[in-house]
Fold:
Amino acid sequence: MDVGPLKNLLLKGDPEFWAQLKTLTKSARDFEELFLLSSLRKKAHARHLAKPGSSAKPLRFALVGGYSLYPLHELIEHLCELENHPVELWQGDYDNYLSEIMDDDSGLYTFAPQVVFMLPAERRCTYTGHLTDARELQQAEAQRVVDGVLELARKVSEKTRAEIITTNFMLPARHDLGAFRSRTLGSDWAFRKWVNLELGLAAPAYLHICDWSFLAHRHGGLAARDERLWFESKQPCSPALLVELAREVTHLIRSFKHAPKKVLVLDLDNTLWGGVVADDGLDGIELGDTSPRGEAFKAFQKYIVSLKQRGVLLAVCSKNDLAKAQEPFQKHPEMVLRLDDLVSFKANWEPKSENIRAMAPELNLGLDSFVFVDDNPAEIEIVRQFAPEVTTILLGPDPSDYVAQLADCRLFEPRSLTSEDAERTNQYRSDAQRKSLAASVTDMASYLESLQMEAAISEFMPVDVPRLAQLINKSNQFNLTTHRRSEAEVSAVMKDKNFIGYSVRLKDRFGDHGLISIVIGEKSGDTMNIDTWLMSCRVLKRGVEEEVLNELVRLAKARHCQSLLGTYLPTPKNEMVRDFYGKMGFTLTTESETKREFELRLENFRPRPTKIKIFRRAYENL
Amino acid sequence: MNQAEVIAQMQTIFDTVFLEPVVLTPDISAKDVPEWDSLTHISLMVAVEKSFGVRFRVGEVENTKNVGEFADLILKRKQEP
Structure:
């Protein structure tokens, strides 16, 4: 890495420095490279080098643990700033995390962190008895380690409502104990594996695991450690792994506010199979177990189907004749992907950027939810230029690497996998069937009636928190205020008596839509302020909006409110609900560029009729 | 390799790490260079080990008083098989 040009930019005071710094930071793998970039960043700040673009408000980020947290803090600060998630740091002292967390008056709590990163000491994750002790004894001690970490997290959560990240424990990489190592829980190897497993499975929604054990495994066990640096300066691991750890934490912080991508758009020739189907014919393409290359393409398809099963929508975009492009899906015996796995199939001669642009409104999704993969650099380039919101992945050159390329892209990682993710393709597909039904029914009312819709309205419940936060953080279009909330913040709403929060689940004869609408209201005097009102666009104009309002009025009246206050905060994506409150019978009271406010007096409100059967209402079982 | 050659090679590493140029001499030490703090030190050590293909033993860098002694240590470690 040559930092000469970057230094010159800094010495000249050229703001181009920041763009260069970002590029170099992305490619830096070595500790000393990244560290050097970080020190140049700090020097640029010290010289007040102007930074173009708006900078986000820093997140208050606390670091505590059983290790020296220098220079880990430095790497995290650097990576977060360059990802546009700047952090304001607070570090605990070396190995002082127990008292920092348990003492109500500690500096940790004075700092009021929004994210707390804990690195519990590895040397406390070891069995203190004998290798041949009864398994029950060893297991009980391992459980105490797990409970200890969970207890620390619980305490932090109670005191701060922060998102909490904890590392788990690196495994040993020496031959010590030989084959016996895996025959007793008393070895560090087995003990820590058990602790890591239990910790991950038992972690509550507010606790995120930074899987250090995995990172070390990926990096290489021997290269993950540096005993000398432990003795000299209490470093948690080797400098190279420290970089991986910092990158992982940065990735986790980013994932708190950014939803994963939703759609994977696939090229066909030399992406899903070898060869060009229009030239080589159905029998000529390479796919399936008869050749190594064919096997690799088949394995890639299997991986893609596994993405679908965890909720990623699949689409095809190919420069092809439609009939020829679809033929392998219909007739090739080794095809794993089927036409009904796909929510959109574009095979034509239009530019791929235009085809992907056309998919977005069809699926009611923003272009920034799309990922496009192709083996052809020219196609990738045209999408990069003309649909820059789309994330692109250039496959190749070897199809045996395709799975690894997608598996390492970090774009489709669920924060917490909900069963509704896996249902999504079915939902989109039955949408298509529903649209064809709409064509056959003459008037809207009888169409809605024929859907046989049923809805359950429920106050926020702990079990729904992951799904609630997921929807709150990804809904863009039908979202009146676009207030984002983390899982911890959703839980806080649940506990606050001034707030009401409820969600709607909808079913119809074609399938279960799952949780599709969320409302958060805050009572202030005799007014109920609508903090959040959002809905999945898939169920637009089916009566859900009306039922949500009926419920809101019912709950507001039960809390002795006289009126509802609705706010619309415009974003580039929520134009569709600009006049929503007006259409729902609210009166516009104030209006500016950045905000529109509406009022609804409750005494005049009559519940709006719909075709939805409501079989449960919020807060009625309390 | 002699001490002067080692210091010349160290100079290129220091030139990369520090923004303000520092001319290394055998007598200079961390306290003479404002940018050479404990954080930068870790980074310098990693870079020096890579550049010279050596590995210091625990605690021994701390015991060197200036760049000259540090260069001698590098020489000593380089001469090991």
